[in-house]
Design a protein that fits this description.
By secondary structure, this protein is an alpha+beta fold. It has a single domain, classed as Sandwich (Immunoglobulin-like). It has three helices and seven strands, in the order αββαβββββα. The protein has a seven-stranded antiparallel sheet with strand order 2-1-4-5-6-7-3. The protein starts with a helix and ends with a helix.
């Protein structure tokens, strides 16, 4: 009887330790490695802007790494833009984007997860406006 009790307590302790060691899924917006082309297009229309230069791709990656996962229920209007990220002509990820006006925040969403948004700061949105906005306005 005593051995059974010790065994059950040991199993309980191990279960508690294992469950405490599991990390939550990181709230990071990732689009893949070695991105070498980004295509930004309006959701309505056929106009698009292709970015293949390292400076623009690095700027997009910095903007994305600053994105913060939003909590709560998502109730958004249709996105303004779609951004496709490519590695050697293979699409790695698509994101829907709401670019705020100058000095407003911006928002990203993965099309396959419409219950989660990722916000970017005013500063990062201003960079996105500079990258994308001039082409479409």
């Amino acid at each position: 009887m005593r051995n059974r009790f010790i065994c059950m307590i040991s199993i309980l302790i191990m279960l508690l330790l294992f469950s405490g060691c599991q990390a939550d899924e990181p709230a990071v917006l990732s689009v893949g490695d070695d991105i070498n082309k980004i295509i930004v297009s309006k959701m309505k229309g056929t106009d698009e802007k292709i970015f293949e230069d390292t400076e623009s791709i690095d700027a997009f990656e910095l903007i994305l790494t600053s994105a913060v996962k939003d909590d709560g229920i998502v109730n958004m209007a249709q996105a303004e833009y779609k951004v496709d990220f490519y590695q050697d002509e293979t699409k790695q990820q698509s994101l829907w984007v709401w670019i705020g006006e100058q000095d407003e925040k911006g928002v990203f969403m993965k099309p396959e997860d419409t219950h989660t948004t990722y916000s970017i700061s005013v500063e990062e949105n201003n960079k996105l406006v500079e990258l994308v906005g001039a082409h479409f306005n």
